[in-house]
């Protein structure tokens, strides 16, 4: 009787320890799912709110350069001086070098971060003219 009780007690402890390891696996899977949901939310937000791409940046830079150049022309005419600068003097060539809206790449990096491994590859910077 005593041996049967000990055997039953050992089996109960083994079953409880098996459930404890399953609980850890379930929690980790749930965390991974929450991480991926966060990545999808960030992707949706990026797609809805991000408009800073090469074409828009170039258009804004050209408009700003034109406005500043016209202001310069007006000042020179009022002062009676010579025009020494051109339109390109007011355009910053590095202004649109880095475009911050790459929603797909951000999503991929976020998703890979959920698994703990981030794979990177080098690629040239886009040139906006």
Automatic annotation (TrEMBL):
One of its GO terms (molecular function) is acyltransferase activity. Keywords: Acyltransferase, Transferase. The keyword Transferase applies. This is Acyltransferase. The lineage of its organism: Bacteria, Pseudomonadati, Pseudomonadota, Gammaproteobacteria, Legionellales.
């Amino acid at each position: 009787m005593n041996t049967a009780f000990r055997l039953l007690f050992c089996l109960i402890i083994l079953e409880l320890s098996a459930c404890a390891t399953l609980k850890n696996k379930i929690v980790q899977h749930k965390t991974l799912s929450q991480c991926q949901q966060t990545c999808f939310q960030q992707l949706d937000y990026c797609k809805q709110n991000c408009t800073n791409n090469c074409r828009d940046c170039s258009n804004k830079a050209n408009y700003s350069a034109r406005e500043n150049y016209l202001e310069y022309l007006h000042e020179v005419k009022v002062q009676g001086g010579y025009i020494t600068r051109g339109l390109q003097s007011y355009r910053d060539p590095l202004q649109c070098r880095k475009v911050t809206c790459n929603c797909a790449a951000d999503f991929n990096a976020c998703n890979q971060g959920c698994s703990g491994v981030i794979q990177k590859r080098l690629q040239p910077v886009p040139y906006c003219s």
